[in-house]
Amino acid sequence: MKRVLLSASSMVDPDAFRAFIGDAVDEPVEIEVARLGATGRLIEAGSRFDDGAGFDAVVVDVDTAVTAETLDALGSELEVVVRAAVGVNDVDVSAAADAGVTVTRVPEYCTEEVATHSLSLLFACLRSVAEYDAAVADGRWTWEEGRPIRRVSESTIGLLSFGPIARRAAEQLSGFGATLLAYDPFVDGDRMDERGVEKVTFEALFDRSDHVAVYAPLTESTRGIVDGDALARLSAHSVVINVGRGPVIDAGALVETLESGAIKAAGLDVLAEEPPDDDPLVGRDDTIITPHAAWYSEDAREELNRSVAADVAAVFNGGVPDGRVDPDADWL
Fold it and tell me: What is the model's pTM?
């Protein structure tokens, strides 16, 4: 008997997981669904069985950190921790490797959705959509409300990170005529050139870009990388988009930059704290915020659950899961 703990969340669908894992595992699978959302709840869930065996697999959402302490509490039978998301920034991958536990993620399930969402935020900010909507609702029918607006085709857009989502966004942007730049120390210039994107340094990205879209994962090297100095390199007409991870941008510096009028607007799908608690970015007229929803479509959710189940089945059957995270990866 294999035991699987599933996080009860908007992303993980227990019925879909059961359906997908189906006959893929050679022995019976017992599935328990629990409302996690905190490390303490995960540790508590790991001690429920009288036989002390714990779970063989744990599937968690982005709201549940998996620490070394968690791994110890989940028992010696644990074989795999599955992050039902793209990033693994709050999973202790090194501790898992030391414990002989495989960590997997689903790196490309929502590539199309997040890329599209990033452009939606960008164009909404560029075209002053929120300002126009608020003005009309307030009885003001005037084009001047959204000034100034500049052509996309005559702008330079910088992409911070050039993974699958940023590459898809570059493809989508290619038809608008904008100049595209990207900074990513792990991607060579030839791969960017193939997509009509120029590889630049971090400083040049902000010096030369009219607008910057952040796709970067959260690592020690990216935390707070978009700070006040970086933002100061932009112009008063600039827009900053973040669909990567909230803490990649220094939130305090972003607030100060917006308040000073040094940039035009920000479009954010991720925040430093989610859900926000008295966040000064929330409710600003120059900021559009969506609730970490860029990943969502019914298609992406189905693909996520299929991939999660396939990875669990692969580990249980002695194979290598498609979403395995290399504990020695440079980007971690």
Answer: 0.87
Task: Give the percent of the chain with pLDDT over 70.
Answer: 95
Q: Which ranges of the chain have pLDDT less than 70?
A: 36-39, 46-53, 330-332
pLDDT, tens digit, for every residue of 10-19? 778 888 888 8
Q: How far does Cα 153 stand from its chain's mean position?
A: 27
Domain containing 103 equals: 2-109+297-316
Cα separation, 191 vs 289, whole angstroms: 32
Task: Specify if 208 maps to a domain.
Answer: yes
Residue of 69, 274, 302, 303 with catalytic role: 274
Q: Is 194 a catalytic residue?
A: no
Q: Is 274 labeled as catalytic in the residue annotation? A: yes
For residue 239, CA distances in Å to 42, 124, 133, 200 come to 39, 10, 19, 19
Q: What are the residues whose beta carbons fall under 8 Å from the beta carbon of 132, sequence distance 6 or more? A: 145, 146
Q: Is residue 292 among the annotated active site residues?
A: yes
Which is the catalytic residue, given 83, 105, 117, 292?
292
Q: CATH number, domain at 98?
A: 3.40.50.720
Q: Exactly one of 83, 168, 211, 245 is catalytic; name it.
A: 245
